[in-house]
Every structure is written in C-alpha cells, then in structure tokens.
TrEMBL record, chains A, B:
SUPFAM superfamilies xrefs: Adenine nucleotide alpha hydrolases-like, MesJ substrate recognition domain-like
Keywords for this protein: ATP-binding, Cytoplasm, Ligase, Nucleotide-binding, tRNA processing
Protein name: tRNA(Ile)-lysidine synthase
Residue ranges of domain tRNA(Ile)-lysidine synthase substrate-binding in the record: 247-310
Encoding gene (name): tilS
Organism: Methylacidimicrobium cyclopophantes
Superkingdom field: Bacteria
Localization per Swiss-Prot or TrEMBL: Cytoplasm
Amino acid sequence: MLLAKAVQPPAPPSHLLHAILSVVEELPSRLLVGVSGGLDSCVLLDALVLSGKRPIVLHFDHGWRPESGEDAAFVGRLAASYGLPYRQEKAPSAARDSEAAARRERYDFFARASRSLGCCDLALAHHADDQVETLLLQLLRGGGTHARGMREFELRNGLRLHRPLLWIERKEMREYAKARNLSWREDRSNQDCRYLRNRVRHELIPFLEERFSRHARRALLRFCRVRIDEEEWMTGLVRQRAEEEGLSVVELRNAPVAEQRRWIHLWLRRRGVPDVSLADVESVRWLASEPRGGKQLSLGGGWKAIRSDGAISLRRKEEGEPCVSINS
Amino acid sequence: MLLAKAVQPPAPPSHLLHAILSVVEELPSRLLVGVSGGLDSCVLLDALVLSGKRPIVLHFDHGWRPESGEDAAFVGRLAASYGLPYRQEKAPSAARDSEAAARRERYDFFARASRSLGCCDLALAHHADDQVETLLLQLLRGGGTHARGMREFELRNGLRLHRPLLWIERKEMREYAKARNLSWREDRSNQDCRYLRNRVRHELIPFLEERFSRHARRALLRFCRVRIDEEEWMTGLVRQRAEEEGLSVVELRNAPVAEQRRWIHLWLRRRGVPDVSLADVESVRWLASEPRGGKQLSLGGGWKAIRSDGAISLRRKEEGEPCVSINS
C-alpha cells in the first residue's frame, strides 16, 4: 500500500524530526497545502502526513517552463501515493511580466480553491532561507520601511496562511528528505539570476557570508524574529483606533511619530487603500499637522484623504474627478 | 583676518546650505566638535562656524598611520584659521586590535575632554552614508537584533552626542565643500578593505546598487528613520518600569513578547549589565516563565539574575563565586 510505504521509516535525525513535527502538529487538522514539487514543499507534505494530517494538495502550474507540466504530474502522483485529494490549475497564459504577478496568480488560485473546497487554512513551505531572502528583498526595495520577513501566520485574501517551516533551514530540509528517502523535482528557474530573489540567494547571501560574517544568515533570521514580534506589539497598540471611521487630529498629533505612522498605515489598509507607502503615511501626517481643515490629498487606488477641522476621513474619488493634490 | 576669510562666501547651493545650516543651528551654542580632518568633519566644522557657533575643536590621533601626525597638525591649523580653541590627544600606543577598540579610545578622549572643559555637548560628523553602513554592519553582526543605524541624539559616557548631518549624503558634503572652497585630508585607511566598514562602503553597497536596486541606499536610509522612531516609541513604553529595582514576573508574563524583550533589555542596561545580547534577554524571559522562584543565571559583566517567587532581581557576583548557570 503506497500510503503505508510513504509514511514508514527511515526516520530523519530525531532532533530534526522533533523540530519539524512539533510545528506541523499545531496546524489545524483540516487544511490545504501548496506543493510546487520542489524539495521544500515535498518535505512539508511528508511532515504533515507523518504527523497524522490529511491535507488537500494544491498545485499551480505557472506554465513558465516547458517541463512545468511534468511538475504538475509529479505532484499529482505524489498526492496519490499518500492517498490525498489533489487539485491543480494552470495559468491561463504563459506570458508573465514579473515574479510579483506570478505570485498574485498563485494566491488567487489558492483563494479560489479555498472557497470551492470550504477550507481556509493553507500550509506553505517557506523556510528560514526564504525568510532571510525575503527580509533582504524588503530592505532593498523602496517600500521596505516595514521589512521584517514573513510571518508564521497571516490572513490574506480570506486565507489563513501557515508557514510552519519558517525557522527551519534548507540544509535541514535536505537532511530530512534524505533520511525519509523523499524525491522531488528541481526547478531550474531557481538558478536563473534574472530573478531578483535568485540573485539574493545565489549572489548576495554567499557574498555576505564570505566577506562579512559566516553567521550573517543567522543574524538576519534573529532580526526577523525580533522585528515580527515588535510589529505585532505595535500593531496591537493601534488596532482599535485604526478601526474607527476617521482619524482624530488631536489624538494623532499627541502620539509619538512612530505610533502615528503605524496607526495611519493600518487605518489606510483597513479601509482598502492598496500598497500603502511611507509617502502616503507621511502625507496624511502632514494633513494632520495643518492648522485647520479643508485640505485634501490623493492616495493610491483612487482614494483621497480629506481633512476637516477635527478629523481626517477617506473617500473614493468619483469617476472623472480630477486628481486632487496637496497643493490644490 | 583668518576667521572672516573662512566664513565668507562662496556659498554652497542654497538648498544644501539651508538643509545643513537648519540642522546645525539647532545645536547648543556651547559645544565640542570632533574633527578628524576628513571631508565630513571639515564640512561640519565650517557649517557650525557659518551658523554662528564657536565650538571647541577636538582631535584624537590614533597613531595608526605614519601621516596621522600631519592630520593632527592640519586640524590644529584649521581650528586656528577659524579662531577656535583646539585640543588634541595621541593614543598611548599604536597597537590596536580592532576598529571597536579604536572607537572606544576616541570616545574615552572625548569624555575626558568634556569633563576637563566642562562641556557635555559634542557634535559628530556622521552622515547618511555612514548611517547606511552602520545599519548594514549591525544587521550582519550577531547582535544586530536592534539594528537601526545611529541616532541624531544620544547619551553616552556622560556626553550628549549630536549628529546633525546624519541625513545628509556624502555627495552633498562634497558639493558643500567645493562651493565653500574647503580643504581636507584624505584618510588612506578608508580605502583599506581589511576593515569591515570599508568593505561595506566599497564592496557591499556598490554591489547592492548595481545588482539589486540603484535606490538601495535611500531605501535603507528610510528604514533607519522609521526604525529609530519606532525604537523611541517602544522604549518610551517600558522606560518607567525599567527603572524599578526588580522585574515583576506577573507583569512580564502578561506583556506581549516584544514588550518583554524591550523591557528586559532596558532594565538590564539601566542596571549596568554591559553588551546585553538577545541571549541574555531570552534567558531572563525563561527565568520569568519558570513556575516558581529559586533559580538564577549568569549574565555578562559579572552579573547574575535571581528569580524569587514574584520578581527577578540582579546582583553582582561575589569575588571568587563560581559561575552560576541556569542548570545549577
């Protein structure tokens, strides 16, 4: 029986098994799992099964590479070998303009599958090396003022994302896969240094370890841990006020600058303003600092912020309404 | 008259002059200024004089390079050209084991000069490029969980440090120096890539700008700004409790993880524990999580933390007392 064969020993080194199973066991028993067919997601899938879960396997075929259909077939066979339900989808067109667009498509598929299967919990195989890469990418990008890596748990598009392997390193995953005799598909596009993330992985991190500190990766990982907890704390401190319809100008002015920023940022996001930037936040702070009301300014996604005497409110710009600037 | 000659036009571009003078003008009128003789500190000194201050010029000769005596002589002449008081000191021995040791020596000199001159305010010429380098160094080092660059104002060794040029870029300083017809000394050791900071400056940052984002420097600088403000906010939230003699176990347990960490960190520092690491902080958190008192653990600098039933206190280890570990 395939299922029995797959979940039997050989066991990985016991400390590693313990580390991986203990985080995986905490996940809900009914859940989806995103499986690309690479090392990371094959380890996650195996660990889920080993800990007694019966996840529904999801695979999204981006259609980027000629062999991507084979990846889908591989993941289908893998799911069957564990006796698990499997659902896949192929991107409608192979033309992608960016990694970000590809990620959006993949998450859209996850969200659709979640709705049709009536299951909101999705496990993803992001691990510690991904985490460090994400932190560096966030830091280097223009909008990286909130850089802190990924979170173990996150709500997105109505999905509850779980990343149980987030603090496990790739070399540990290899060890696990070897001991458990797993097979997986190598994604050749992971080597392609036209992609920013691959350059971080293959050029920047080795450069940092070689020229600066062989512990650089660990140091950055620790930074993520501390900063994620700090973000949760700071967000908790402004959460209630960020739910309110308007921003109180007096309260805002009396808060420390960092509290103002976190409050405004969360308030804008909660009200649907997309991709809130530091510039957006600073504009709203400027609006609050003005001596009296009547001014307004444009934000992303067709929103505008309007300052009355005591508060700042948000409104969607009307069709055809000219772009309102802070100088108007 | 030399003074008049030095402070007369040519003026730098007006926006730059405005930016530099507006931050320098806010400094106390009686102050010290650290001048190495390099571009940055020569610009700072000139801007101070131009804004009407009469600082006391301090120069520390590390004695690292054969020509360092000439730097000292240059700074002495420069101070005289502005008609300013000047004080210098030479490191007792040319043997240094690290940049950190050199920095300590320099700050010790500043502290001595401050006491003997009865002036606590010291202006330093750190600028935006230094800031980005500092952030990267902090991130790459093992203890970089609080990485956020330098602060514009800081208390250290009884000194009030001011860094008015912290958000001005090096290329702007060059522009200022050119327009003001300043001269300065090039420090050849700034090119020496045996030093970690120089490798960050000459290898890492150009690599990031070339391979990842030409706006990397700006993005990192924005990150520093946001994070410094966040640190100030978070520290403000725990400041009062960090002054108390003991740590309340119940209060600590009820706080969010990040608040616990900030509180313990500040509490340890306020009580004199040197170089508080994340490991120290996590040890104290562990001590608080224990079901009952009676346990103790060793911290840096000959301190130990002792857990009673309701609180954690600190005590210096006695002479000859064996190292107490959390397992003892």
